[in-house]
Amino acid sequence: MTKKLKVTLFIALLLIIDQIIKILVKTNMTLGESIKIFSWFQILFVENNGMAFGMEFGSKIILTLFRLIISGLVLYYIIKLVKSNYKIGYILCVCLIFAGAIGNIIDCLFYGVIFGESSFLQGRVVDMFYFPLFEFPSWVPFLSGEIFFSPIFNFADSCITVGIFLLILFFRKDFNKTFDNIFSKNKK
To answer: For the whole model, what pTM was predicted?
Structure first.
C-alpha cells in the first residue's frame, strides 16, 4: 500500500468515525440530554457555536472561512510531506490534526442546512464527551464546587489534541526540519 493511499484512508477513517458519532448523537438525543456511562464519563449532547470550549470569534461565517483556509494550508503541507517521502508517523500526526479540523468544519458547513437550524457555513459543532472527573471540595479556595475537567468535546477535537500531543512528544525536532526541507526545495 502506498503512503498516499495510507494517508487518504487514515483521514477518511477518522472523518467517518467522527461523523457517525455526531450523527448518532444528533439524531438520537435531545440537546442537553445526558447518558451516564460512569460517574466520571457521560455522553452529554451540546452544540458549540464557536471555537474550542465555546469561545466565539466574531462572525460565524468568517470563522468557518478561516478554518477552511487553514485546513487547506494543512492539506497542502500533508501533500508536500507525502511527496517528500517523509516519516509516516509524522505525517499521520499531521493527518490527525487535519481530519479533526475537517470533521468540525463539516458540522459548520452542513449541519445547519441538513437539520434545518441555520444556513450554509453557520452550523454548530456537535460535542458529546464529558469527563467530570471530580468536584473540588468546599475547603479548596477559589475552586470549591467546581468540576475538574469540565470541557465537553467530540472525536474530532480528540484527533486534534492527540495529533498535537504526539507531534510535541515524538516529533518536536522534525517539525522545524520539515518546513525547512520541504519548502526550501521549492526555492531551488
So the answer is: 0.87
